[in-house]
Each structure stands twice: as C-alpha cells, then as structure tokens.
Write a structure and sequence with these properties.
Blueprint lengths: L1 E3 L33 E5 L1 E3 L2 E8 L2 E7 L6 E3 L8 E3 L2 E7 L6 E14 L2 E11 L6 H5 L5 E3 L1 H4 L3 E5 L4 E5 L12 E5 L1 E3 L2 E9 L4 E8 L7 E3 L13 E9 L2 E15 L2 E11 L1 H7 L5 E5 L1 H4 L2 E6 L4 E6 L14 E15 L2 E9 L4 E8 L3 E15 L4 H4 L7 E5 L2 E2 L5 H8 L6 E8 L2 E8 L5
Parallel strand pairs: 5-11, 6-10, 17-22, 18-21
Antiparallel strand pairs: 1-7, 2-13, 3-4, 4-5, 4-9, 6-11, 8-9, 9-10, 12-13, 12-23, 14-24, 15-16, 16-17, 16-20, 18-22, 19-20, 20-21, 23-24, 25-28, 26-27, 28-29, 29-30, 29-31, 31-32
C-alpha cells in the first residue's frame, strides 16, 4: 500500500466531454451483500450533472456519474489530508481539448463503495495536472468520475425528478410494463454506449449515431455543421464549450429544429458544434455524428441496462421546459477564498406587554447588540467572456473579480445558481459590482437572446 498526498485538481464546465484512451483490463466487479437486490442513492444535480457519494479506501468523496468514461478517474483531492491508493504506477492519459497527454497515476486493487455496492479490486486513474479543475467551475466538490465500472455491474435507473439513482442486481431486475416508456438499442465501443437519434436540420431528417454522455451538461453536440449553421441570417455564436482533460474546447452554439428519440420529439434543442481539432480527437467511430448530453437526458427517467444493451426513457416533469443557454456570455469560477467581515443582528423572540386595565397589548422586537463576524468565503472570478455578449459590451473582462450580483454578495450564491441566473430569461437586467486592479466598478447589462 502506498499513501498519495492530495495532488490533483480537476473540473467540468457548462459542457463536459472526456475521452480516455488508456483502458483498464482489471477483472473487478461491484457486488451487493447477499440479501440486497437493489439500492437507492440520493444525488446532487448540478448543471444537469449527477453527483453521487463514493468511498475510496475509507475516504468519502463526490463523483460525477458519467456514461462517457470507460475508466474511473480521481482528481480534486487537495483539500483532503491524504487518500490511500494501492499499487500505484505512472501512466499517460489523453482527453478532449487543445493539449496533448497528461500525467496520471494508475492504481489497482482499491476498495470502492457506492451506496451498498462494493468493489475490492477497483482500478483508478488519478490525474496529476492541477490546472484541470472541475470543482472550481462547478462550485461543488467533484473528486472524480465513475462510469462503465459501475454501469456494467448493475441496471442503473436515474430519476432526475426525485434525484435518486437506483442500482439493481441484473439477475433480480424485472422490467415492469410501462406506459409511455420507449426502449432504445445500445451499441458499445471502447466501453461507451451509443444510440441512434433523428436530428432535424433545416431541410431534412438525419439518422445519427451519438454517444450517450451523462457527463456532458449540454443537450447535444454535432460534428457536422452542414445544413445547420448559416451566416445570413446568422443563427449561431462562437463560444467556449468546456474544459476537457487536454484543455479548452471551443466551437459554435446554435439551435436545431428538432430531435427525435423514437416516439419522443424535442424542439429547439440548443446544440454545440465543436471545432475540428476536438472532433478529430474523439471520432473513434467513423459513423459517429455527435453526443447526447444531460440537458436532454434530464427530461426523462433513464434506465441503463448494459448487459441487455438497452436504454429505457420515460419523460418527466422537465420534458416541456425550453432549452436555455448562457445569455450573459460570462463564465465564472471559484478562485480561492477571501476574508469577509459581516455585522449580524441577532433577533430575540418578540416580547408582548399587556395592560390589564385596557386589556391592550403591544409587541416589541428585541435585538441583541450587533456582532461582527469574520469568515472565509469563495472568491468568484471571470474566466471567459464571449465576444459581443451583453457582459462584454458592458465592459466586463476576463480576470475581473465579481463582488455582487443584483445587490447580493457573490459568495452568498452557489455557482450553479449564477449559471442558472445567466440562462434564465431574456430581458432580465443584471447588476454586477466587480473589482479590477483594486478599483471597484458597477456594471449593468440585459440578458439577450442570440439564437
């Protein structure tokens, strides 16, 4: 055994897409205790992404549940005192983005627990590049990603409405008759699931093979712009799409006419078209046309049955929601901590005074003396500004520290709440106070539809 100090960071942005080309061959399996046939696990839904608790060699962590990865990845553990990994050796990984390979550590024979499920021979890749930081862009701790290693051993139901993942023993799982459900045949390549969808362009309906990627918070990625992107009138904008293992991902954002999933049809789906370098890195199947992400999947209850190569969808309460995108043109991240000083006024329960003669009463609010509190809070910094966006036209720049939004101190928001605010409603006014080079400035812009 070997203890590895916390030496990795990582992140995932509005879009997360990841391709690991080094695949493990360890014969490890998750199993339940003998008397258990299923287990429900609560999850946190952040930017459409499912974050579940995972325990590695006794250390409790938070992991992204991602059908788009073939191996378990670990990162963002610098806030931990230490984490134990077994039988470690250095390796190289390659992922999406502008860079090349990155350094990692391969560790075998680890004990990993997900709910009541346990694997005592689990293989883990720990990413060593501190620049890859998913937690700072998500605003919640994300220590790693787990995908195929869990899906291969269970039937997995993800209920986005109740925020519960249910794991079923495959030999005990009985598929129920389901009115309104639709089944999809899955195809697998490099331990990742693919399915056929119908994409509606301006002039035709195109049968397309797409990767099912629950680790992408976008709705849809398409690799071919033909018949989708036009310049007159312009129906897209250039954007920062996300951060992969190998660096930044850029491309175009637009909306397509419709997306067909068997009997289900979704209109006006926000769609990203990554640049050619990104497509070249991930198009391992020539006939693959794109990626289906969680902005679409969260509109359903999703049952993945890898053993029978089947996915079942049933629409939920989110199905009819419109597809949004970041209308502000701003991407923020946590960038360390800042000292905060606040005055708290502690209110005591109201005091009632009654006059017997007149049988009248009066209620008084009583406060203690104000108390000055000091604490550390997240610092929010602008890391991307889309050219020509409302935020850019208001003069907000990359590197600005955001102090408040609409009169509320920035640290009182969760990062995903700010993302939701920027994607909320066209015509909404956003007031921001920023600081640049030690000078505070007030900015104002209005969210504007581009697509």
């Amino acid at each position: 055994m070997e203890k590895l100090a916390n030496s990795t960071r990582s992140f995932l942005l509005s879009v997360f897409a990841l391709l690991v080309f080094i695949l493990g061959n360890a014969q490890s399996h998750f199993t339940f205790p003998e008397a258990i046939s299923r287990d429900k696990i609560p999850f946190e839904l952040v930017n459409n992404l499912v974050i579940i608790p995972v325990e590695i060699n006794g250390t409790r962590l938070s992991f992204l549940l991602d059908t788009g990865v073939s191996s378990t990845l670990l990162f963002s553990v610098e806030e931990l005192d230490s984490i134990q990994l077994n039988n470690a050796s250095p390796v190289k990984l390659r992922g999406l983005g502008e860079g090349g390979t990155i350094d990692a550590i391969l560790s075998n024979n680890n004990t990993v627990r997900v709910g009541k499920a346990v694997d005592k021979q689990h293989r883990i890749y720990m990413v060593l590049d501190k620049k890859i930081n998913f937690s700072t862009r998500m605003g919640v701790p994300i220590h790693g990603i787990i995908g195929f290693d869990l899906f291969k051993d269970f039937v997995v139901k993800t209920d986005y409405s109740s925020k519960r993942v249910t794991l079923y023993k495959p030999d005990k799982y009985r598929k129920r008759r389901c009115k309104g459900c639709s089944d999809f045949k899955l195809r697998f390549h490099n331990k990742k699931p693919y399915m056929a969808v119908t994409v509606e362009s301006r002039t035709q309906q195109i049968e397309s093979l797409v990767l099912i990627d629950t680790g992408s918070s976008d709705g849809l990625w398409l690799f071919d712009e033909y018949d989708f992107i036009i310049n007159n009138p312009r129906n897209y904008f250039n954007d920062f799409l996300g951060l992969g293992l190998s660096g930044n991902i850029f491309g175009k954002r637009s909306k397509i006419k419709g997306l067909g999933l068997n009997s289900f049809r979704l209109e006006g789906v926000t769609t990203s078209f990554p640049d050619t370098n990104t497509v070249r890195n991930i198009r391992s199947i020539p006939e693959r046309k794109g990626t289906l992400g969680s902005e679409v999947l969260r509109r359903f209850t999703v049952i993945m049955d890898y053993r029978n190569q089947t996915m079942t969808l049933k629409k939920n309460k989110y199905f009819d929601e419109p597809f949004y995108y970041n209308m502000a043109g701003l991407t923020l991240e946590h960038d360390g901590l800042i000292p905060v000083r606040e005055v708290d006024y502690f209110k005591i329960d109201p005091v009632t005074m009654t006059t017997k003669k007149r049988e009248a009463s009066a209620i008084f609010d009583v406060y203690k003396s104000p108390t000055l509190q000091f604490f550390l809070a997240p610092k929010f910094v602008v890391v991307e500004v889309r050219e020509g966006s409302p935020a850019a036209l208001a003069g907000i720049q990359k590197g600005d520290e955001v102090l408040s939004i609409n009169g509320k101190a920035c640290y009182k928001y969760k990062l995903y709440e700010i993302i939701n605010l920027f994607s909320s409603k066209a015509g909404r006014t956003i007031y921001m106070e920023i600081t640049r080079n030690g000078v505070n400035q007030k900015k104002k812009f209005i969210l504007r539809e581009v697509l």
